[in-house]
Amino acid sequence: MKIIKNIFDKNRHHFAGDGKFEKLKPLFEAAETFFFIPGIPTVKDSHVRDSLDLKRFMSIVLLALMPPLFFGIYNAGYQSNLTSGLPLSLSAVLIKGLFIVLPIILVSYVVGFFWETLFAVVRKHNISEGLLVTGLLFPLILPPTIPLWQVALGVSFGVVIGKEIFGGTGRNILNPALTARAFLFFAYPGKMSGDTVWTAVSGAGEKVVDAFSGATPLAISALAESHEKIETILAKGDYTFATLFLGNYSGSIGETSALLCLIGAAMLILMGIASYRIIFGGILGVLFTGFLLNFLATDSSMAWLSLNPFYHLVMGGFAFGITYMATDPVSSPGMNKAKWIYGFAIGVLTVLIRVFNPAYAEGVMLAILFMNLFAPLLDHVEIKLRLKKRIQNV
Q1: Which residues contact 114 (CB under 8 A, 6 or more apart)?
Q2: CB atoms near residue 273 (< 10 Å)
Q3: pLDDT mean over 362-380
Q4: Mean pLDDT to the nearest integer, 206-224
Q5: Buried-most residue among 155, 204, 219, 363 (CB within 10 A)?
Q6: Are the CB atoms for 192 and 185 separated by under 8 Å?
């Protein structure tokens, strides 16, 4: 590491002041920060410093994303080989999964860092580490069949429109990764929904492809008649509660396993990164709404109303969304009570969108983006209520 440090020290003057590469200073500092802790000393007065800087914060989030990432690589390869009639050995599945997932991640990072670097150079500030998380979150909420050009277009929209126009990391009101996915969903619905986008089929015979049905649990549930029980229909399609919890079925790359999202949530909570209030609030919101709809259900009402509320927690992307998206410290509230309300409302909206909007079976994405807009208001209301409790000055 000393050799690398010497290289940076000898070339720093080219990127500072009137150096010939002064305009590329953000890129130089980003590369240096990748290897070393930023060397910004405190020179005035006394300061109370927290050991958790932005770089370490993002590193911990990336660490917590590793379980769904690794499982997503395995699952994407497994579902592809299973459908295509190819070998299901661990090595074959992992190689296939890497061929599917890695190009999506690379495009997300390359294009995202291009925009980050461009805005950093124009605004003359450092490149933010925020894209380290956004660049990985975005691929994990995409179907494995997504065209790479759409990945590039989506991350461009998320970074530029969802974050940079507000001033960059720390000033955006919407989660950039979810903003990017919402853009692709409404701009190119054919590549973001349906039964055929969730499994990358390749090298298969016509019989295998013709027999292939990639309907997700949410899509199957949306087709249930009023006299049918969704749990029974899912079980017939091999979507038992255990399967949904473990996540070994077709879906977005990193969203299917509620178990691994639970592990990631525990890591983020124990390390002080994610707010347990938002996560538990979201779970309570889902269960409250689910049990309320169960109470209101009749024999002639839609099948969704009778669904066991715990299925809402393991189906689709709720577990991933409430763990990694809803807890984004920039786009979520900062006050404790506001966090409970924010999480609870996301859970309620997720169930309501799934039940009463048959055209859009998954509700967590829209629920989080909608509550992102109300996060500042929730903080404002709580602060106002706290100020009213203060004793007036005499």
Answers
A1: none
A2: 18
A3: 93
A4: 65
A5: 155
A6: yes
Return the sign of the alpha-carbon dihedral for residues 357, 343, 266, 268.
positive
The answer to whether residues 345 and 188 touch, using CB atoms and an 8 Å cutoff, is no
Three-class secondary structure of residue 264 per DSSP: helix
Interatomic CA distance for residues 30 and 9, integer angstroms: 14
What does each C-alpha distance from 328 to 5, 51, 363 come to in angstroms? 33, 19, 18
Q: Where are the domains of the chain?
A: 2-35, 55-191, 215-249+257-387
In the chain, what's the furthest Cα-to-Cα distance?
Answer: 84
**Between the ranges 130-134, 267-271, 342-346, where is the mean pLDDT highest?**
342-346
* 299 contact partners, CB below 8 Å, separation of at least 6: 226, 227
10 Å CB burial of residue 180 (0-12, 13-18, 19+) is buried
The number of C-alpha atoms within 13 Å of 177 and in the hemisphere containing its C-beta is: 26
| Sequence-separated (6 or more) residues with CB below 8 Å from residue 37 | 53, 55
Question: Which pLDDT tens digit goes with each residue over 19-51?
Answer: 666 666 665 565 556 555 555 555 555 555 555
Mean pLDDT of 309-323: 93
Q: How much is the pTM? A: 0.85
Cβ atoms 136, 148 nearer than 8 A: no
Say if residues 309 and 286 touch (Cβ distance below 8 Å): yes
Half-sphere exposure of residue 224, counting CA atoms within 13 Å on the CB side? Answer: 29
Query: Which own/partner pairs from 53-58 qualify as long-range (CB within 8 Å, at least 24 positions apart)?
Result: 54/128, 54/129, 54/130, 54/169, 55/129, 57/273, 58/129, 58/130, 58/132, 58/133
pLDDT tens, 107-161?
999 999 999 888 888 887 777 777 889 999 999 999 999 999 999 999 999 999 9
Closest of 250, 278, 249 to residue 265, by C-alpha: 278
User: How far does CA 196 lie from the centroid of its chain?
Assistant: 22
Q: How far is CA 247 from CA 140, 250, 313, 380, in A?
A: 14, 8, 12, 39
- Structure tokens, 10: 């000898």
Kindly state the helix (H) or strand (E) to which residue 294 belongs, with its residue range. helix 276-296
pLDDT tens digits, 162-197: 998 888 777 888 999 999 999 999 999 888 887 788
